[in-house]
Amino acid sequence: MKQTRRQFVHKLFVATQATLAASVLPQRLWGAGSIPGGLNFLVLGDWGRNGEKDQQDVATQMAVAAKEFKAGFVLAVGDNFYERGVESVTDSQWQTSFENVYSAPSLQVPWHAILGNHDYRGNCDAQIHYSRTSRRWKMPARYFQRTEALGGGRNADFFFIDTSPMAELGKDKLLPMAHLHSQDVGKQIAWLDSALAGSKAPWKIVVGHHPVYSGGGHGDTPYLVEHVLSLMEKHQVQVYFNGHDHDLQHLQAGRVNFFCSGAGSKIRPTAQTPRTRFAKGCSGFAAVSLQPEQMQVRMIDDQGRLLYTAEVPRIQG
Questions:
Q1: Residue 117 burial (10 A CB sphere; 0-12, 13-18, 19+)
Q2: 118, 179, 181, 218: which one is catalytic?
Q3: How far apart are CA 111 and CA 134, in angstroms?
Q4: What distance in Å separates the CA atoms of residue 301 and residue 23, rounded to the nearest whole number?
Q5: Rounded distance between C-alpha atoms, residue 126 and residue 86, angstroms
Q6: Is 218 a catalytic residue?
Q7: Which of 17, 146, 166, 175 lies 20 to 30 Å from 192 when distance is taken between CA atoms?
Q8: Higher pLDDT, 163 or 26
Q9: Band (180; pLDDT cuts 50, 70, 90)
């Protein structure tokens, strides 16, 4: 089929940008201090906007990083489809916001996904059921646990939680309250406590949509501070990944590190707090390399620039 001039120019632009990114990003990203091997993955939140430019720019850089980094999977930390989630497993947004945007070969890896508040405006079960038809979309339930091998007989345990029922009651006026009230938050907290207690892995990582602490527009989430943070401290969780605030952040409270990667498309300003180690309101994502004794987290923007690197040692004892 004959292409229009606009279609040709768009394809040429995308190809040129990918070529430029491939020649620039790896040198900056994998410079001094990078960790070879390890369990490598990307973290992306607040992204699904039908392939708009900011989403596509981030996707282009993710593809380059994933190829160079040999990323084994992606953590999709919620607000997967704007503005109102998806209606079914055949909703057009599966193509326009996911399949057609993150189409690079390096991104054809498992996407371990959780729900965000915008996803709750639609059909949450459809996102769970899409796992049955998709090779890479992995959402077995609203909250779940996964174990990943680190090598040398060691593992990392990931605990994926559903934070909207904990955080959004009475806040998001567009959320159907029945969707939230139907979820047993107490049961989920009891599951998290039991699952963390049963983990013998040297790394315990919790993944949620809402931040525990944040300098972004949404700020701290009181329920998570009171109920989830206490469990993370009790069971020696080192890292919490989240989205919700449309920015990139690293905060620390005690021995728990909080990384916000909610900049998959549109962004908002962010601010510094006493817990802030890094904060920037720009589109981007996080690239993580996890070793038995250390985690390295890199924040990368939508132009492939390495903005920040954090090294998190494993909690001993």
A1: buried
A2: 218
A3: 10
A4: 16
A5: 7
A6: yes
A7: 175
A8: 163
A9: confident
Whether the bond between 83 and the residue before it is cis, its omega within 30 degrees of 0, is yes
- Residue 148's domain spans which residues? 5-313
Given this model, what pLDDT does residue 71 score? Answer: 97
Task: Kindly report, residue by residue over 218-263, the tens digit of the pLDDT.
Answer: 999 999 999 999 999 999 999 999 999 999 999 999 999 999 999 9
Tell me the C-alpha distance between 252 and 81, whole Å.
Answer: 29
65-80 tens-digit pLDDT: 999 989 999 999 999 9
Rounded mean pLDDT of the chain?
90
Better-predicted residue by pLDDT, 26 or 161: 161
Cα(first)–Cα(last) distance of the chain, in Å? 63
Helices (H) and strands (E) in the chain, counts: 9, 14
Compute φ and ψ for 167, nearest 5 degrees: -115, -25
- Residue showing tokens 């040692």: 313
What is the helix (H) or strand (E) element at residue 67, kind and residue range? helix 53-69
- Please state the φ and ψ torsions of residue 239, each to the nearest 5 degrees: -140, 140
The count of other CB atoms within 10 Å of the CB of residue 226 is 11
> CB–CB of 296/35 below 8 Å?
yes
The residue with tokens 């965000």 is: 116
- Specify the number of domains making up the chain: 1
Q: How confident is the model at residue 20 (pLDDT cuts 50, 70, 90)?
A: very low
Q: What is the largest CA-CA distance in the chain?
A: 64
Length of the chain: 317
Q: In 103-163, which residue ranges form alpha helices assigned H by DSSP?
A: 124-129
We report the CATH number of the domain holding residue 244 as 3.60.21.10
pLDDT band at 173 (very low <50, low <70, confident <90, very high): confident
- CA dist 176 and 1 (Å) reads 44
Name the residue with tokens 């004959």. Answer: 2
